[in-house]
Structures are given as structure tokens and as C-alpha cells.
Amino acid sequence: MQLRYAYRLDPTPGQRVALAKAFGCARVVFNDGLRARQDAHTAGLTYIDDGELSKRVITEAKKTLERAWLGEVSAVVLQQALADLNTAYRNFFSSITGKRKGPKLAPPRFRSRKDNRQAIRFTRNARFTITPGGKLRLPKVGDVAVRWSRQLPSEPSSVTVIKDAAGRYFASFVVQVGERSLLPVEAEVGIDLGLGHFAVLSDGRKISSPRFLRRAEKKLKRLQRALARKQPESNNREKARLTVARQHAKVTNARREFHHQLSTRLIRDNQAIYVEDLAVNGLARTRLAKSVHDAGWSSFLAMLEYKGRLYGRAVLRIDRWFPSSKQCSACGARAESMPLNVRSWACRCGAVHDRDVNAAKNILAAGRAERLNASHARGRDGASRPGGGQVRPPHPGGMPVEAGSHRGAA
Hints:
Structural class: alpha+beta
């Protein structure tokens, strides 16, 4: 599988100027290609193919006085900008024809020079290299110092140079990695994600929510007020904007580090992990939007899934409509309603449940049943079995022998 390895860059002032030129040229080529296709569509002409567009906005444009400065940057950077435009158009066409799943995509938009994030991509054709001294050699930029935090596992196929809103530079390498083996374990865990606790595990453990954005809100409010008082387009306003962006970057980095540590620990300690497929987009439009974004559930689940593939662990999402909170994990009885203010409840069978722990146990049981159904239908070799019906427990909830049986196994 392919992974990205990102490292901080420390370009010199001259290299920053060269990167700024590359960012600007890539943006202009993207916008010129988009304008050419829009004009052709308005005039009723046929869609301009990729080869013709490259010839028009790069090869021929370099010969004109208005675009002669395109020759000051690597041609691969310009070609990759057009490749991004072509990908955006293909995704748009696939979306409107129904070939692409998910919400409908809008057509490509023009890139602005005022965007706080700029990026360019170098492929192997650009002949970027890592020097013996550990610097990243980029064509028409030079040898850029890299803060190496770890070694690359293989030869990178491309590198993307990024300048973020806080004015920091990064190099993101695409590398091919093989599956890494971990010692098999018997433990499995169900996870109930929430806001009060970031994660509640089926063995009863509760992971507190760090709430990085909430903790930084007081300082961010002060910095935002200082930014609002600055004169538009002034140097002081740009300095204040960078200060706000750096504070947001600290929050983002702390949240990402928390997600990485927790996901790695869960992958290492469990052979299978079952989580609920949350409707994050819907929750992000409610009054809890700030807390939902602060938790970062989507990025955490994405980390779990790619680390599961990398280390040979099973990560399975349970249907979001599964009533994990309303169902008794001991007998399978289902309550009629379960308001959010009810944090513990007693079932008719006599079992007393913590709401979140009970939900995690039900998620564990449902994940095991779904995984067993898939295994029965396909077989261990992955081939489908004729006549293989679904195998389900007597009720959708957790079996009595499963509840609380893995406290010491994880």
C-alpha cells in the first residue's frame, strides 16, 4: 500500500522566492486550463482533451510575452497542475453521471493567490533526489534542508511541497510499503465514540476527550480580537494572521498526535476493532458542531483503518442505525427510547448498564456477528460458498458470555 511521509522543510530566503514562483506558476496554469475549457463549453465547442490543453497553456504559452516566465520553474510542476485539473473534471463528470458514490461534486473552481495553503508536486520525471547530506534537491529550487524524523521505507515516487497557513513548509513523500506483521492476539474490542469521553471500550475503559480546541479557545479569542483591529492589507495584519494560524496549527498537531497514539495502541493490543459508522457530516451541522469538529472522529477512524490494513488487523464499521445504546447487552431487550441525558439504566432482566459501556459491548457483539457472517459466506480462502446463509446470534445484542469477558485480554 501507498503511504505519505511528511517532513518539515527549512528553505533559505532565496529558496522561498523560488518556491513562491513555482506556486504561482502552477496556479496560473491551472486557472488558464480551467478558463480554456469553460470558454470552449460556453462557445459550444467540444471538450478540450488533455494533450491539446497542455500544448495550449504550457508549451505555446511559454512562447508569449505574457507567460514567458513559466519557463522559470520546472515543467513537471506545471504538468502536475494540469493533472490536478483533469482529475477534478473526471471526478465531476463521474459524480453527475452517478458513477461516483457520495454527494454530488461541483465543477472545478479557480485557484486564488490569496489561498493560505499552496502546494506543488514533483514526480520522478522531475528528477528530485535526496542528497548524501540529507537535503531534498528540487529542480530550479535547490537543495532544501529537511528535518528528518525517521527514514523513508522505500524510494519515493513523488514529493509534494506544501506551504500551510502558518507559513511552514513541508515535504510529503509518497512511498510504497509492505504489510508489517504483528504478533496475533486474541483480544477484540468494540468502541463507542462520544463527546463526554472520546472513546469508551467494551472492556469498560474510558478514554477522556482532550478537547484541544476548547482548551485553546481563550487564547484564540484574544488573538482573533487583535487580528480584527489591524488595518486591512497591512503588514501588522499579516503578522496577526500568522499568529492565529500558528495557534490553530498547534491545536491540529496536538489532536493528530493524540489520534496517532490511541489508534496505534488499539491496533497493537487487538486483533479486531469494531466501531460505529457515525454520520459526522450531519452532526457537524447541529449545535454540537464545534465539539464534533474538535473530537476529529473521521480522521481517527481513517487512521484506524489504514493501520489495520498495514498491520493485518481487522477494522470494521457497524451500521450507524444499529441501536447500540437502547439495547441490553445481557439479554437483547430493546428500550423504546434513550434520551441523551440518561447515562445509566436498568434492564428488565436485572442488568444495570452504563450507557456508553453498554453501547460498546453491543458494537463488539454486532461486529463479531457481521464478521462471522462474512467469513461463513466467503470461507477462509476468500472464495464465496454456494448456499452459505447468514449466521446470527439468537438476538442482535451481546451474548451473556461476551459481556465483560475481555477486561484482562486487551
